[in-house]
Amino acid sequence: RVAQQMLDRQNAVLAMDAIETANQVSSILDNSARDVQVMGLIAPTEKNLLQFYLSRVSEVTELDPRDESVTVIPLPIYSDISFFSLDGDEQIRLKHGKRSQELRKKFRCLPTEPCDPALFNSARELKVGQMLFGGVLRWYTRRGESESLDGAILPVIGRSERGYYLLGVDYRFIKEILMHPTFPYEARRDLLQSYQNGNYIYMVDSNFDMLTHPKTWHVTGFDRTTAARVTPMKVDADEGSHPLNVQKYQGERLRDYFERLLKRSFLQKSVDIFQASNLKGTNRVLSVAPILTNRGQFKQSGVYGYVILGCNVDYFEEPKEKYVPYY
Fold first, then answer.
1. Do the Cβ atoms of 217 and 243 come closer than 8 Å?
2. Most exposed: 54, 135, 210, 234, by fewest CB within 10 Å?
3. Higher pLDDT, 67 or 162
């Protein structure tokens, strides 16, 4: 009985950790949705955009891989701020607070940076006061390559009477969440090592692409040569050269696990806890919580994506499937 009580308590703690992590992402989404609507009330001048840029500053945790030291630095939330005319011509763009001389015309992407034309196409249909979230814009990182976060953003676009405002949430605010302590509350100084140990966080968006993951080559991104989004891996042999998509995966090692996510965990607006193995065969207990928002295109579904917490079974008395109500 004592062992069962311990297991229940551990499951409850893991469930609450997943909820709190998902709430952090929801807060970023909701704040950016409000901010892009606030922008619609501001005259589109370089001075006003710069003041807005400087007024939205938070803190981000960074890890130096050379000595695993952790620092907390102040960082503007929006590294990319733009105003487009109603015709889709970019009038002003600030990148890291500095005016850019390269402007986009008719909502056409520049070949020198990650860009999703689907977001611009959807933006044309927006009415005044409406907004949309875009997918993560970052260069794809293959296994063995160093991840480049320069210019990596989560774009949010809104329509005003004057035109369109685009805010790019600095991706580092999303990625740093992987370092936050969750049960069993061990420091994550090496995200990849923590993943191999079975203790980690990763996130999936509404398209079932990896929003963040300790294995950076699993995260969706764009090819530097073609500037097109890299297609997801289909079979296990593709790992390391293609990102991972839960729905489009056709391999063997993660099939049962991903089917469980798609057919059960992702169909409920509540926490789901179960046991599964990763690609290395490490057994872990998974806690899955929805990232909730009723903004933009998620007004009806209310779900932007999902947070998945993994915890090595060695930290559990007798791990087994267990469901905890969402509250």
1. yes
2. 54
3. 162
Q: Which two tokens stand for residue 52?
A: 């807005």
Who's near 304: CB < 8 A, 6+ residues apart?
A: 25, 26, 29, 133, 205, 206, 291, 292, 293, 298
User: Cα separation of 183 and 303, whole Å?
Assistant: 24
- Asked if residue 23 has pLDDT above 80, the reply is yes
Distances (CA, A) of 71 to 67, 115, 171: 12, 30, 17
Residue 6: CB atoms within 10 A of its CB come to 13
Q: How confident is the model at residue 323 (pLDDT cuts 50, 70, 90)?
A: very low
CB 186 within 8 A of CB 199: yes
**Tokens, residue 139:** 């260069």
Whole-structure pTM value: 0.90
Dihedral of the alpha carbons of 1, 184, 174, 132, in degrees to the nearest 10 = 0
pLDDT digit string, tens, across residues 37-85: 999 999 999 999 999 999 999 999 877 666 667 788 999 999 999 999 9
Whether the ω angle into residue 184 lies within 30 degrees of 0, i.e. cis, is yes
